[in-house]
From TrEMBL:
This is Nitrous oxide reductase accessory protein NosL. It holds the Pfam family NosL. PANTHER family: HTH-TYPE TRANSCRIPTIONAL REPRESSOR YCNK (PTHR41247:SF1).
């Protein structure tokens, strides 16, 4: 705590007292800036709770891929839902590609992909779900990227995703999904069966929301 007692040295004089008063004013102003809830520089609150740590990855025409084709996960890409690096868990990775310019967002798991699809504008400012040209998930059996809309998902198994919570492993066909469920538990779901209520129950991010 600052001590604002005035100096008692004799002979301080009028100019000395004025100088001391100036220093005291500056110190008081500085201390007020350090009080809780009083930022030193006024800052405009960010709109809503948009995550700003995961910019989209631009399409590279030199890749030779079609604009909406699935692509390899860049090592630097971050999931816009949870902030994790999907390249570190490729067996769970998912992605969406925007139709207008081929920009891609990458996800650490199908669960994060579905959370994103529920409210695209929340995680990608200025975007909406209608602008997405393609969505892909990783087939848990082969490791290949497959269309998210045609995949079969297993909910409620003992398989833990990158966030160490229950997840939605994806499969190219019902036979592969059923074989997995027979070993690891869980029920088979199609894309359209995964709704907001289920996602809210499965969301492992806690009270913080990007």
């Amino acid at each position: 705590m600052l001590n604002f007692c005035s100096p008692s040295a004799p002979g301080l004089g009028r100019f000395g007292r004025l100088a001391w008063a100036s220093l005291l004013t500056l110190a008081l102003a500085g201390s007020l800036q350090l009080l809780p809830g009083r930022p030193s520089v006024p800052a405009e609150a960010p709109p809503g709770d948009v995550c700003l740590v995961a910019p989209p990855t631009p399409y590279d025409p030199r890749s030779g891929l079609d604009l909406l084709a699935a692509r390899a996960v860049p090592p630097h890409a971050r999931c816009p839902v949870c902030g994790m690096f999907p390249a570190r868990s490729l067996e769970w990775a998912a992605q969406v590609i925007f139709a207008d310019n081929g920009e891609a967002q990458f996800f650490d798991s199908p669960l994060s992909l579905f959370i994103y699809l529920q409210d695209v504008a929340r995680f990608s400012r200025g975007r909406n779900a209608a602008e997405i040209g393609a969505s892909y998930v990783t087939d848990a059996s082969s490791g290949a990227l497959i269309r998210a809309e045609t995949a079969i998902y297993v909910q409620g198994s003992d398989a833990l995703g990158p966030m160490r919570a229950g997840n939605l492993p994806a499969f190219a066909d019902a036979a592969g999904a059923q074989a997995f469920a027979d070993k690891r538990g869980g029920a088979l779901l199609r894309f359209e069966q995964i709704d907001a209520k289920l996602l809210t129950r499965m969301d492992a991010r806690g009270p913080h929301r990007h």
